[in-house]
Amino acid sequence: MDTARPVVFIHGLWLHATSWQPWVDLFREAGYAPVAPGWPGEPGTVAEARERADDVADVSIDDAVEHYAEIIAALPAPPVLVGHSFGGLIAEKLLGQGRAAAAVAIDPAQIKGVLPLPLAQLRAGFPALGNPANLHRAVSLTREQFRFGFGNAVPQEESDELFERWTIPSPARPLFQAAAANFVLHSQAAVDTKNEDRGPLLLISGTADHTVPDVVTRSTFKQYRDSSAVTELRQFEGRGHSLTIDHGWQEVAQAVSTWLLGQGL
Fold first, then answer.
1. Quick one: angle between helices 61-73 and 86-96, nearest 10?
2. Which residue segments constitute the domains of the chain, with CATH numbers given?
């Protein structure tokens, strides 16, 4: 019988699921059973995803949450969830619903109740939010937009290489949902932050992140103050939104692995 703890990696907007492959390899070597499924409708390769943008158009936060909930239900044991950006928000929602043993949310997208909205975050989201007609579309980033939103803390050459290797069109709808979360009664960006029976949660931020600035992640951390469940925050100085895929990814991955061991996972 395989007793390896399942780990589900959940990516955010504008990156393909295969961008997690180095993490998958590292966690498999560490004795876990990792998988990195794409979002609903996401084609299996970066090239296919770029050619078939309409396959993911109009996917909502709840569509993605239910998609991953189905994947989790088929696993032999409750998994650890590791999510980046909107994948972090999805991981938080699933943990709050009691569907996971633990979760790590890296630069997680803004949940309902988080109020700071820095100018850098507005600029990073503008490629989608700048046109209301994008609500039901899939949107791509330009090389320059990726540089600002993801690659600002790495050299230009590395940012361009990451852009060419991993970026795909992504649904704009989750961005609109997160942006309006505090004005919508039953927002899909709402997370059960008061659940005291959930597994442990680690929030990670890069202090140079433009897409999810550190102040946003710190505000997210404060949203969990009414829960006695383990909730911790780890900040990586000078790291941007590319911290899961750039040359320093192993530092972040090792921190996650060390934290999980400390939680008995």
1. 60
2. 6-262 (3.40.50.1820)
